[in-house]
Design goal:
Blueprint: H1 33-59, H2 66-126, E1 136-146, E2 149-157, E3 166-178, E4 181-185, H3 187-191, E5 199-203, E6 206-214, E7 219-230, E8 236-241, H4 242-245
Antiparallel strand pairs: 1-2, 2-6, 3-4, 3-5, 3-7, 7-8
């Protein structure tokens, strides 16, 4: 028998080792998660606008034209301006009408006052208690007509002989100063006519007679006298101061 040494464990063939398994992949982490969310939001917004534009096109809704808007606003402005012009004109017409109405009312009040004065005059003159007076000049008025010409209006009255007709002629004379001297202008001087006829009158109770007289340049009147020459009676003369005779012709009278 061979005394062979026992086999060494290190000399024994190595047992086969199992193949190493592949390691599991490590989980992936996005280093910029906020950027991803922003991109997603932008994408969604873009999709939303695209869908809206598509709906507008498919729906047939026309896009607003800025020029059309401008024209519409301009038309509205012109309409408002026209309304303002119309209202302004209407207001002016109302003001003019109101002014004309006030003027007409003033004239009517003056007419009413004149008529009341006439009625009072008639009552005093022809009333049952009226004072009996013969032929007289109740009122004498003079108004300037330009270039030294004065228009006179004389109111003649009489109620002494009721129903009787008074006939005759009226003449005027004016006293004043000229070149520092007293001067009297008779009827022929005032009428600038030789043998100038008088202004005729014919009435039962009263009458207004009118005419014109001419004053020379530089003449300052002081007093005016009316001379009545009745057909059957003595001459009647009445005098008035120039201030009284021309009072109504003064401004504001």
């Amino acid at each position: 028998m061979n005394d062979a040494p026992p086999p060494d464990a290190s000399d024994a063939p190595a047992a086969p080792q199992p193949a190493p398994t592949a390691a599991a992949p490590a989980p992936h982490h996005d280093p910029h998660p906020r950027l991803t969310y922003i991109l997603i939001a932008v994408l969604l917004v873009s999709l939303g606008f695209g869908a809206w534009g598509l709906s507008v096109v498919l729906g047939g809704r026309p896009a607003e034209d800025p020029r059309a808007q401008l024209r519409a606003q301009q038309a509205q402005i012109e309409d408002l301006e026209q309304r303002v012009t119309t209202l302004t004109r209407s207001d002016q017409i109302s003001r003019d009408a109101n002014r004309d109405l006030q003027s007409a009312l003033t004239e009517r009040e003056e007419e009413i006052a004149g008529l009341r004065a006439d009625v009072a005059f008639y009552e005093r003159f022809v009333g049952a208690t009226a004072q009996r007076r013969g032929l007289s000049v109740h009122e004498l008025l003079l108004q300037p007509s330009g270039d030294g010409v004065w228009h006179f209006t004389a109111t003649l009255t009489q109620n002494l002989n009721r129903g009787a007709v008074s006939r005759g002629g009226l003449k005027l004379s004016i006293e004043g100063t000229r070149d520092g001297k007293l001067q009297r202008l008779d009827w022929v001087d005032l009428r600038q006519q030789h043998d100038a006829p008088p202004v005729e009158y014919s009435f039962k109770y009263f009458q207004q007679v009118e005419g014109d007289v001419l004053l020379p340049k530089g003449f300052s009147p002081v007093r005016v006298s009316a001379h009545l020459d009745p057909a059957g009676g003595a001459e009647v003369e009445q005098s008035f101061t120039w201030a009284d005779a021309t009072a109504r012709s003064a401004p504001g009278a």
